[in-house]
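Supplementary Methods. Inverse-folding protocol.

Structures were first reduced to a discrete structure-token string of length 392. This string, shown here, constituted the complete conditioning input.
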């Protein structure tokens, strides 16, 4: 609109100029134009008006061309935006269907945008739908496609690694992990899967070596993974070289390693599995000289000795300071029962059940009552343990 106004302003100025010029100059002049048999006669003012008309006409023509091109471009953009809206609608509908567990509907929507650029998120969602539909092979295909997008690459690789571990293909999982960048390998989800893959592959020593640098990343999971790695490593030694070599190997380890509760727990567990209960009892008492440790206390329950005096004394000493500790009471009850001291076992378990009402304690107390021919009490305790199991 502003351009039309400018054209009219120019037209008015030119017309005023011609009128003023005609008023100033009395002589209108004479102009003769002959071209290919055509003859045009006019005065100067007619020529001026003709030129003004041609000029203004060209300006209007230029404006019309520009308007036509702009309209064509706008139509093209509208068509493009309509296509994008259609793709976005399919993506949104697919995500909603996925959340509503309508997996077939979700699959249909994601199929429509399979080759569109949604940073790979559409492929990850499509893979999830395929998994729920029992099509893991198709899901793997989508994950591999998603690895080609920078923003979705890590998530897709994590899915592939988890899938490999679920299929017990630890070597494939390790290959996928090794292919990641150094920065990606240092992230917590990758580290956890890496540890799982090494454990599944039976590479216990390699896992233990890497755990030294993963302690901060793993956080609260470190102790459990280190215990598992140490247990696997000690189990290998015991199975290949015997229990004696296991003890010798333990003594050769660095002091810092032998003071790590996770490694201590794994070592003691292996001693128990090798039938060396006296050595296990000695280690449990020695390694907890100052205070009980949550990783070690449960191992007391597995000690089977006719007279585990040191272990019982240690547990009773701790209970004098903390007589409401359910874990200590439970441990005392189990080790006493294993030593056939039913009186002490019943006393400790009764208090543990009163405080914690845990299934393992209920079942052991039921077993003790059954051995005392107290069938009614035993049955009641078994029922409680089943109810406890059902509610957990």
């Amino acid at each position: 609109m502003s351009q039309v106004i400018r054209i009219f302003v120019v037209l008015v100025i030119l017309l005023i100029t011609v009128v003023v010029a005609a008023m100033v100059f009395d002589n209108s002049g004479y102009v003769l134009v002959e071209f290919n048999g055509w003859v045009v006669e006019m005065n100067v003012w007619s020529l001026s008006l003709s030129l003004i008309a041609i000029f203004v006409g060209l300006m209007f023509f230029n404006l019309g061309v520009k308007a036509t091109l702009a309209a064509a471009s706008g139509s093209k953009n509208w068509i493009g935006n309509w296509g994008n809206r259609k793709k976005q609608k399919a993506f949104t509908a697919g995500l909603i269907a996925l959340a509503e567990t309508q997996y077939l509907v979700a699959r249909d929507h994601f199929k429509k945008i399979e080759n569109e650029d949604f940073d790979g998120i559409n492929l990850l969602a499509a893979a999830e739908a395929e998994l729920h539909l029992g099509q893991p092979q198709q899901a793997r295909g989508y994950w591999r496609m998603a690895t080609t997008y920078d923003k979705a690459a890590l998530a897709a690789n994590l899915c592939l690694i988890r899938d490999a571990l679920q299929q017990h293909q630890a070597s494939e999982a390790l290959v996928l992990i090794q292919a990641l960048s150094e920065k990606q390998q240092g992230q917590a989800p990758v580290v956890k899967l890496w540890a799982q893959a090494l454990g599944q592959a039976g590479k216990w020593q390699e896992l233990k070596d890497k755990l030294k640098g993963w302690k901060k990343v793993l956080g609260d999971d470190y102790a459990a993974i280190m215990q598992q790695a140490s247990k696997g490593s000690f189990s290998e030694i015991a199975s290949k070289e015997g229990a004696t070599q296991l003890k010798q190997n333990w003594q050769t380890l660095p002091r810092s390693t032998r003071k790590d509760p996770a490694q201590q727990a794994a070592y003691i567990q292996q001693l128990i599995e090798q039938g060396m209960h006296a050595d296990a009892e000695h280690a449990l008492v020695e390694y907890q000289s100052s205070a009980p440790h949550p990783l070690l206390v449960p191992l007391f329950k597995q000690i089977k000795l006719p007279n585990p005096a040191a272990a019982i004394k240690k547990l009773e000493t701790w209970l004098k300071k903390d007589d409401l500790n359910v874990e200590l009471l439970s441990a005392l009850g189990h080790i006493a029962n294993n030593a056939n001291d039913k009186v002490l076992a019943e006393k400790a378990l009764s208090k543990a059940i009163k405080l914690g009402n845990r299934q393992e304690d209920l079942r052991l107390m039921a077993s003790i009552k059954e051995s005392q021919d107290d069938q009614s009490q035993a049955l009641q305790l078994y029922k409680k343990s089943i109810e406890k199991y059902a509610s957990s």
